[in-house]
Design goal:
The chain is about 50% helix and about 15% strand. By secondary structure, the protein is α/β, with parallel strands linked by helices. Helix 2 packs across helix 3, helix 4 runs parallel beside helix 8 and helix 5 packs across helix 12. It contains 21 helices and 14 strands. The protein has two domains: about 120 residues, Rossmann fold (3-Layer(aba) Sandwich); about 190 residues, Glycogen Phosphorylase B (Rossmann fold). The chain starts with a helix and ends with a helix. It is globular.
Length: about 425
């Protein structure tokens, strides 16, 4: 109870900060103290509640609310959104915690996002929660992977609205098993059902006293596979890749360690072309990448289909949202975030049959370990190890062909989770 009390104090203060951050002086000070990313979080929530109330005022359809942290979680949610909208005339509301996800999707059409409405999730204060649920009136609520917001969950339960946790991984090292994890353990009781990725997560939930867990697999496979089947062309990237025997895709470059890995590789292999896709786009990031590279690099925004790429070694993608499609232009891939708790999607490149390298922090992930076991993924902890992995593959067409074959078999075995999850959401606790 003390933890919940302190939680509410912090969230109420954050909500007040959002509401009062409008003046130029306040904005300048907040940006100076907390940085651009925090300011982006604040700015996309200034009028969030008014936007929700205005948009939902005339909505008469049955509403399903899906909440994702950012674009990675949205990739899990997208095939589920598609199934929910296709089944009947439902209205699907999608919310984001991060400004990155919200800003990337808010201008897109329903056919592109699979959501009828997209909002930045208002801060989890008790006042906001009541106002949001009054406006949206969800029949079902779905939280993706690890989004736990106490006041939203508690109020959904009070209103007897079924709420589902999707694609959860519950390890014995998670906060739920810590001495200080009581606050999180209490939140589990609010979920009507959880779908988990593996048997160990189901077992761990049982240890915590939670019995409503279903092993469903990972809808990321369904989403990524659907993207491969969707026609996509980019004239700039195709001009860059033309007449090349292979292009290395460095996706979701997350931090300095990722940057050191992939710039070292590019500098060692200047006869190979690279596409760099930073996780966050800023002038500082783009300049840093170019500074670390010995070969010539251009940002995507500096190019067109007539650009002479003959002496350009690295193309830097300076827009958000296309990485899962860009992997189709690659022959090898490195996925960033593996030196933090947040390794990005290794499924997105593997559906194209690419061998994939990633950093060492994979204890929260199931897929990288499976990929390592069958030889289509490699954990690398230093630039030298990444270079050794790539050098062993670079000219080995027979090995690349075998990896491609094993990758496609692996994907085929894991497709199909979406149908089970959607059925659980629609029929569970009806």
């Amino acid at each position: 109870m003390v933890t919940h009390f302190l939680y509410n104090i912090v969230l109420d203060l954050l909500d007040r900060l959002v509401r009062t951050a409008g003046s130029d002086r306040a904005t300048f000070l907040l940006r100076l103290v907390f940085g651009e990313k925090f300011m982006s979080f604040i700015e996309c929530r200034k009028d969030a509640m008014q936007e929700v109330c205005r948009a939902m005022a005339g909505e008469k359809r049955e509403v399903y609310w899906i909440h994702a942290a950012s674009l990675g979680e949205y990739a899990v949610a997208r095939p589920i959104l598609h199934q929910l909208r296709r089944s009947t005339d439902r209205c699907v509301v999608l919310t984001f915690f991060s400004s990155t996800g919200y800003n990337a999707l808010k201008q897109l059409s329903t056919s592109q996002t699979e959501a009828d409405y997209i909002f930045a999730l208002p801060v989890d204060s008790r006042k906001n929660v009541s106002a949001f649920l009054d406006a949206v009136k969800p029949k079902r609520a779905v939280f993706i992977i690890s989004e736990y917001w106490m006041n939203y969950l508690a109020e959904l339960s009070n209103r007897k609205i079924p709420v589902f946790l999707i694609s959860a991984i519950i390890s014995e090292h998670s906060v739920f098993f810590k001495w200080y994890g009581g606050f999180h353990r209490r939140m589990l009781r609010y979920f009507s059902s959880c779908t988990v990725l593996d048997e160990q997560s189901q077992t761990n939930l049982k240890k915590l006293g939670y019995a409503n867990a279903v092993i469903a697999g990972d809808p990321l496979f369904d989403n990524a596979a659907a993207i491969t089947e969707t026609e996509y062309h980019d004239a700039v990237i195709e001009a860059f890749c033309a007449r090349e025997n292979g292009v290395f895709i460095a996706g979701s470059i997350h931090d300095d360690k990722d940057l050191a890995m992939v710039t070292h590789l590019a500098n060692k292999h200047q006869d190979t072309k690279f596409i760099f896709v930073p996780h966050e786009i800023s002038e500082k990031t783009l300049n840093r990448i170019k500074y670390e590279l010995e070969g010539y690099a251009l940002s995507y925004s500096e190019c067109n289909s007539d650009t002479d790429f003959s002496r350009v070694q690295v193309l830097i993608i300076d827009f958000i949202g296309a990485l899962s499609r860009i992997y189709r232009y690659g022959k090898w891939a490195y996925v960033g975030g593996g030196f933090t708790r947040y390794l990005h999607s290794v499924i997105e490149p593997v559906v194209y049959g690419l061998p994939v390298a990633f950093g060492p922090c994979i204890h929260r992930k199931i897929t990288p370990r499976q990929m390592m076991n069958i030889g289509i993924g490699c954990m690398v902890s230093s630039p030298e190890k990444l270079d050794k992995w790539f050098s062993g593959l670079k000219y080995n067409d027979a090995l690349l062909a075998e990896i491609n074959h094993q990758a496609h078999r692996y994907v085929e075995k894991n497709i199909g989770a979406t149908q089970l999850i959607t059925s659980t959401i629609i029929n569970g606790n009806a």
